[in-house]
C-alpha cells in the first residue's frame, strides 16, 4: 500500500485515492471486444436506456454534450468503473483491472476490457485506441492536469468529484447519477438508489434492535513502512465513517483528517486512545504486506480493549472503501453482520 502523510494529503489530494491502497502495476493492452455485463442483477434488469442528445454539467461545472448517450466508455478510477457496471454497461477501457478485481468485488469486470495501465499514469494512446465516445475521470478541480491531457484527444471528458467530506454519501450517489445521465441509464440508477436507501433503513432498524456492546467504532486500514506499522483511521467525512454513523453508530476517531476523504494517520499508540470503540478493518490483504499480521504481534495492540475483548473485526475481502452504491451496500451489510454475529 503506497501512502501519503497527512501534511501531503492536505496540500495534494489529487493522488490520495489513486495511491492510497491496492495499486498494482499493469501494462495496457487487450484489444478484444469486452463481454457484456451478465451479472444476475443485470440479467434481470428491465429498465430502459434513454436516447437522443445529452447535455449535462459535470462535478466541476463543465458542460458535457453528446449526440446520444455514451456507449463506449473508458474509465480511469475504480468507483466509476463499478458504477458503470452497476448501470449494466461494460466499459471499453479501465485503469488497473487487476487492482480493481482485488479491491472491488461489488461488480465483476467482464473479460475483454482493455487495461490502460495505472490509475495515476494511464496509457492514453491505449485508452483512445479503444475508440471511446466518453472518458470518465476522477478530478479535484476543473483545471486538473489529467482533464487537460484528455481533452487534447477531442473526446468528451466527464469529470467526477473524488470525494467530499462535507457529505461523502451524497457525493457517492451524485457521482453514480451523473454517470447514469451521461449513459442514458437514469431509470436503472433510480432502482439502484432506491435499493440502497431501503437497505440502509432496514440495516439501521436491525442494529437498533440488536444488543451491541457499544455504538462507538473506528474503521481503519494501514500499511507497513520501513518496518513500522502506519494506521489510517477513517474519520469524520470519510465514506466508511459516515455509513457507520448513518446506521446509528458513533465514529470515535477525533484526530486530524484530510479535508477531502476524512482520512487520518496514526500509529498503534494513537489507536489505543479511542477508548472502548469497536474496531473494523479491511479484510483485503495488500500485496505490499499484511499489516494485520504485524499488529497481531504487538503487545500494546493486543491490550487495546477492542482487541483484547474480541471486538476487532475484519471486513470481507474485496469491499472497496471508496466505491459506489453497491460497494456501500456491502459496507452496510458487513457492519450489521459483524455486530450481530
UniProtKB/TrEMBL annotation:
<feature type="domain" description="Fe/B12 periplasmic-binding">
    <location>
        <begin position="72"/>
        <end position="341"/>
    </location>
</feature>
<dbReference type="Pfam" id="PF01497">
    <property type="entry name" value="Peripla_BP_2"/>
</dbReference>
<keyword id="KW-0813">Transport</keyword>
<dbReference type="InterPro" id="IPR051313">
    <property type="entry name" value="Bact_iron-sidero_bind"/>
</dbReference>
<dbReference type="InterPro" id="IPR002491">
    <property type="entry name" value="ABC_transptr_periplasmic_BD"/>
</dbReference>
<protein>
    <submittedName>
        <fullName>Iron-siderophore ABC transporter substrate-binding protein</fullName>
    </submittedName>
</protein>
<feature type="signal peptide">
    <location>
        <begin position="1"/>
        <end position="20"/>
    </location>
</feature>
<comment type="similarity">
    <text>Belongs to the bacterial solute-binding protein 8 family.</text>
</comment>
<keyword id="KW-0732">Signal</keyword>
<feature type="region of interest" description="Disordered">
    <location>
        <begin position="26"/>
        <end position="53"/>
    </location>
</feature>
Amino acid at each position: 500500500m503506497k501512502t501519503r502523510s497527512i501534511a501531503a494529503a492536505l496540500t495534494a489530494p489529487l493522488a490520495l485515492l489513486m495511491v492510497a491502497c491496492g495499486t498494482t502495476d499493469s501494462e495496457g493492452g487487450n484489444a478484444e471486444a469486452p463481454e457484456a455485463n451478465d451479472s444476475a442483477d443485470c440479467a434481470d434488469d428491465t429498465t430502459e436506456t434513454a436516447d437522443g442528445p445529452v447535455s449535462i454539467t459535470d462535478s466541476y461545472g463543465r458542460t458535457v454534450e453528446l449526440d446520444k448517450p455514451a456507449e463506449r466508455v473508458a474509465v480511469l478510477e475504480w468507483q466509476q468503473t463499478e458504477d458503470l457496471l452497476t448501470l449494466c454497461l461494460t466499459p471499453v477501457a479501465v485503469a488497473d483491472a487487476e487492482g480493481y478485481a482485488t479491491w472491488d468485488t461489488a461488480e465483476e469486470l467482464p473479460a475483454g476490457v482493455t487495461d490502460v495501465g495505472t490509475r495515476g499514469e494511464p496509457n492514453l494512446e491505449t485508452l483512445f485506441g479503444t475508440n471511446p465516445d466518453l472518458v470518465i475521470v476522477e478530478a479535484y478541480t476543473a483545471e486538473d492536469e489529467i482533464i487537460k491531457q484528455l481533452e487534447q484527444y477531442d473526446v468528451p471528458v466527464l469529470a467526477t468529484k473524488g470525494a467530499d467530506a462535507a457529505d461523502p454519501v451524497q457525493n457517492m450517489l451524485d457521482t453514480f447519477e451523473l454517470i447514469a445521465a451521461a449513459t442514458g441509464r437514469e431509470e436503472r440508477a433510480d432502482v439502484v438508489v432506491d435499493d440502497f436507501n431501503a437497505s440502509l433503513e432496514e440495516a439501521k432498524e436491525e442494529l437498533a434492535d440488536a444488543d451491541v456492546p457499544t455504538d462507538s467504532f473506528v474503521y481503519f486500514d494501514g500499511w507497513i513502512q520501513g518496518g513500522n506499522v502506519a494506521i489510517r483511521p477513517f474519520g469524520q467525512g470519510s465514506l466508511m465513517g459516515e455509513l457507520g454513523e448513518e446506521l446509528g453508530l458513533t465514529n470515535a476517531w477525533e484526530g486530524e483528517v484530510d479535508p477531502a476523504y476524512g482520512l487520518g494517520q496514526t500509529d498503534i499508540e494513537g489507536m489505543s486512545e479511542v477508548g472502548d470503540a469497536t474496531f473494523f478493518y479491511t479484510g483485503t490483504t495488500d500485496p505490499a504486506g499484511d499489516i494485520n499480521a504485524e499488529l497481531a504481534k504487538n503487545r500494546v495492540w493486543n491490550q487495546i480493549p477492542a482487541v483484547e475483548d474480541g471486538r476487532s473485526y475484519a471486513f470481507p475481502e474485496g469491499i472497496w472503501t471508496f466505491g459506489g452504491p453497491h460497494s456501500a451496500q456491502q459496507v452496510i451489510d458487513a457492519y450489521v453482520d459483524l455486530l450481530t454475529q
